């Protein structure tokens, strides 16, 4: 279901000449698992218009990537709403307390 929604969202954004936002893509696909949690983010970033704001780099930790994505979302959305996704349910013990654990479906 998530992939179909993403495909539709990408097409609708192109048709309406609108910018697709990472927040929307995350909310549509958060329930989808990946062998490497970083792939969930890197795949979505490749769907955004223009140069990806964060480049795929498998030399950084998942925690570092989630921190960078959280910072990007705060700036992109001009909002702290992503911080409302912070939950006590975490799979990444070393994740900073202000960063949502994007590997937990209930956190978006």
Structure description:
- Helix 2 packs across helix 3 (37-45).
- It is built from four helices and no strands.
- It has one domain (2-107).
- 18% of the residues are buried.
- The two termini are 17 Å apart.
- The chain has 108 residues and is mainly α.
- 44% of the residues lie in helices and 0% in strands.
- It has helices spanning 2-15, 22-29, 37-45, 62-77.
- The longest helix has 16 residues, at 62-77.
Question: Main beta sheet: strand number and arrangement?
Answer: none
By DSSP (H or I, 4+ residues per run), the number of helices equals: 4
Mean pLDDT: 80
- In terms of per-residue confidence, which ranges show pLDDT below 50 for 5 or more consecutive residues? none
Q: List the secondary-structure elements in sequence, H or E.
A: HHHH
What would you report as the Rg, rounded to the nearest angstrom?
A: 13 Å
**SS content category:** mainly alpha
The percent range for strand residues is under 5%
Oligomer: single chain
The count of strands amounts to: 0
Shape, per Cα inertia axes:
globular
Range of helix content: 40-55%
Can you tell me the number of structural domains? 1
Distance between the termini: 17 Å
Give me some keywords for this one.
single chain, 108 residues, mainly alpha, 4 helices, globular
């Amino acid at each position: 279901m998530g992939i179909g929604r993403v495909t539709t969202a990408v097409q609708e954004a192109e048709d309406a000449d609108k910018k697709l936002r990472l927040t929307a893509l995350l909310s549509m696909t958060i329930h989808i698992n990946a062998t490497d949690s970083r792939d969930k983010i890197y795949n979505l970033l490749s769907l955004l218009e223009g140069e990806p704001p964060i480049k795929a780099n498998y030399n950084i930790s998942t925690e570092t990537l989630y921190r960078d994505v959280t910072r990007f979302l705060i700036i992109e959305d001009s909002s702290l709403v992503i911080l409302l996704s912070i939950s006590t349910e975490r799979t990444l013990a070393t994740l900073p307390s202000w960063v949502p654990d994007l590997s937990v479906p209930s956190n978006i």
